[in-house]
Amino acid sequence: MEMNQYLEIFLEESKEHLQACNDKLLQLEKEPGNLSIVNDIFRSAHTLKGMSATMGYEDLASLTHQMENVLDAIRNEKLAVNPAILDAVFLSVDYLEEMILSVENGGDGKKDVSDAVEKLVQIEKGKPDEAAPEQTAVTKPVQGSQQYDEYEMTIFSQSKEQGFSAYEITVSLREDCLLKAARVFMIFEILDGLGEVIKTVPSVELLEEEKFDQQFTAAFVSKEKAEMIKGAIMKVSEIERVEVQELALQVSEERAAEITSAAASETAAAAVPEASQPVQAAKQATSSKTIRVNIDRLDSLMNLFEELVIDRGRLESISRDLNNLELNETVERMSRISGDLQTIILNMRMVPVETVFNRFPRMVRQLAKDLNKKVDLQITGAETELDRTVIDEIGDPLVHLLRNALDHGIESPEERVQKGKPEEGLLMLRAYHSGNHVFIEVEEDGAGINPQKILERAVSKGILTEQAGVALTDKQIYELMFAPGFSTAEKISDISGRGVGLDVVKSTIESLGGTVTIDSQEGAGTIFSIQLPLTLSIISVMLVELEQEKYAIPISSIIETAVIKREDILHAHHQQVIDFRGKIVPLVFLNEVFEVPGEEKTDDLLSIIVVRKGEKTAALAVDSFIGQQEVVLKSLGGYLNDIYAISGATILGDGQVALIVDCNALI
C-alpha cells in the first residue's frame, strides 16, 4: 500500500493520543486509584499501537505494545500504580513523542527503545526492585468494577427503594465486529425497553464514534432479572460475551431515613428518568461538523483575501472620486460583505492557546522533580484564541518564563515552611482577551524579586552606571532583567544561569508586536505579563502624511492624536519634549527620523500622535492626519529587514506604498 497519503492523518492523530496520554498520566498521579483514567490511557496506547503497526513503524508499535501490557495489568488490578511505574510510562511517552517528531521531519521513526521496553517488562513481571516502598495500593471501587459518584449512588439507592435492581453490564464485542457503533445502538434499544441506563464507560459520545476497544460497561436499573437482561442482549449478533452483575448497595441509616421522607420520595420518583435523559439524547446519531484543513490552504486563502482588501481600498478611492450613486452603493455593499468575510477568515486562523499550554504540565512536573520543589500548576483561559502565526512563536518565550519562575521564583519546600508559606508553591498560567489584545500571565507565589540585587548585578555587568541606577524606580530596575546576557543565578545549571532567557523572551514578543512587563513584590511573588495582538496580517492603522510620503501608525500603539502650539515645545536633557496631561513626553519629528526631504516647517500649530510601549510614551510629530484604515501588513523582505523603526509596508487604495512605523523601536 502507498502509505504517504495517510501520513498526515497518522501524525495528527498520534499527537492527539500522546497529548491525551500526558494529560491522563498527570491526572493518574493525583488519583492513583482511579481505574477509569487507566482505561483512557490504555485506549490511547492501543489505538497508537494499531496505527503504528499499520504504517510500518515497528519501534513505535513495540513500545506502545509493552506500555499496553503494563496498563492492562493495572486495570486488571494485578499491579498497583506507584511512582516507578508512572516514571517508566512517562519515559515511554517521551520516546514516542521523539519518534513521531522524527517521522514528521522526514525520518524513519526508529529509535533505540530497549531501555524503556526493559523497564516496562520488569514492571509487568512485578520485580521487587520496581515495587517502590511508598507504592499506593489500588483503591477498590465502591461497588462493581467502575467508580460511581455520589449522585449516581443516590439514584441507585432511590431506585432500589422503588423496587428496581441496579446492574453493571459488561458487553464484549467480537474481534471481527465491523460496525461497533451499530451494535451499541441495538444494545441500548434493548436496554431502553427493560429499564434505564444511568452511566456508560466509555461515554456515549465515544461509543457512537467507535472510540473504544471491543468492550464497554453500562450501569443500569431495571425490575427485570439478570438472566433475562443477559438473554435479551445476547440476541444481538457479533457479541462475544455479556456479564450482568447486580450491584450490592449499602444504604446508611441516615440515607434510609431521608429516602422514607415525603420529600425524598418525590425526588426519587423523578431521579431515574432525569438521569437517563442525557443518555437517550446522546443516542441520536450526530454527523461530524468539523473537517481537517491543511494550514497551507488557510495561508493561501488569507493571501488571496489580503489582495482583495487592497483592491477594496482602491475601489473605495475611485468611488469617492467619481461620486456615482450606484457605484457608491455597490462599493459600500461589497465593503460590508468583505468585512464579514474578513472576520470569518481571521477566525478560521484562530487557534486556542491550549495547543501551547498542553505541553507545560508535563514539563513543570519534570522540572519540579529535578529541582526538588513542590509545585501546583494552575492553567486558566486555555480556550483563549490567538492567530496561528502568533501561536507558532509564543511557545519558547513561555518555556523560558516558566523555567525562570520555577528556578528563581518558587523556593524549596524547606524555605517555604520557614517563611510560613505552604510547602507546595503555586504557579499560575492564564490567558484572557482584552480589546484587540490577548494577555498571557505567568504568576508565582515565590520569593519575589530583590531590586537591589538586580541593580548590583546590572552595574557589575556594565549595563548602567551606579549613578544612573539611583534614580530608577523598582519597575525600571525590573526592566534591566531583559538586558542581553543578564542573569542572577549564582551557579550555572541546565535550567538557568547561562544569560539567555528573558532577553530572548523580550525580543520574540516585540517581534510579534507585543510587550512584556514584570510586576513583583519581594517575599510574595512575581507576575510576568505578555500583551499580544490578536492577529498580525490585517491591522487598523492611522495614515499620516510627511511631505509627499504616507506612513501608517498601528492604532494599537496610539493613545491619542492632538494639535499643539509650537511654542509649547520644551527642552529637557538636550531633547525636545512636551507636557502631555502633566507628564513630560519626548517629542520625535518623524520627517527627521526617516530623512524625508522638504523645507523646514514654521507653522504655529503642530500635529502630533502620542504612542506607547508598555508604560513608556512618546509624541510623534507629523505634517497631517489622513484617517483610520484597515491595511494588509506586508513584510519588506530579506533585503530590507534591518530598516530602523519600520515593521513592514502596505499598498493603499491609490496604489501608493505606505511604510508602517514600528513605535516600539522608536520608543
Describe this structure in words.
This protein is an alpha+beta fold. The protein has five domains: 4-130, HPT domain (Four Helix Bundle (Hemerythrin (Met), subunit A)), CATH 1.20.120; 150-283, Histidine kinase CheA-like, P2 response regulator-binding domain (Alpha-Beta Plaits, 2-Layer Sandwich), CATH 3.30.70; 296-349; 352-533, Heat Shock Protein 90; 538-666, CheA-289, Domain 4 (OB fold (Dihydrolipoamide Acetyltransferase, E2P)), CATH 2.40.50.180. The protein has 23 helices and 22 strands. A hairpin with a 2-residue loop joins strand 18 and strand 19. It is globular and about 100 Å long. The chain starts with a helix and ends with a helix.
Name a few traits of the molecule.
667 residues, alpha+beta, Four Helix Bundle (Hemerythrin (Met), subunit A), Alpha-Beta Plaits, 6-stranded mixed β-sheet, 5-stranded mixed β-sheet, 46% helix, 23% strand, globular
Looking at the overall shape, the CATH architecture of the largest domain is 2-Layer Sandwich
- For the record, the count of structural domains works out to 5
Write down the overall mean pLDDT.
79
SS-based class = alpha+beta
Oligomer, anyone? Answer: single chain
User: In order across it, which strands form the biggest sheet?
Assistant: 14-18-19-17-16-15
Classify the helix fraction into a percent range.
40-55%
Q: How many beta-strand segments?
A: 22
| Annotated CATH topology of the largest domain | Heat Shock Protein 90
What is the overall silhouette?
globular
* Beta-strand content estimate: 15-25%
Low-pLDDT regions: 128-143, 251-288, 492-500
CATH superfamily of the largest domain: Histidine kinase-like ATPase, C-terminal domain
Largest sheet: 6 strands, mixed
What does the radius of gyration come to? 32 Å
Question: What's the end-to-end separation, in Å?
Answer: 60 Å
What is the number of helical segments per DSSP (H or I, 4+ residues)?
23
At the first level of CATH, the class of the largest domain is Alpha Beta
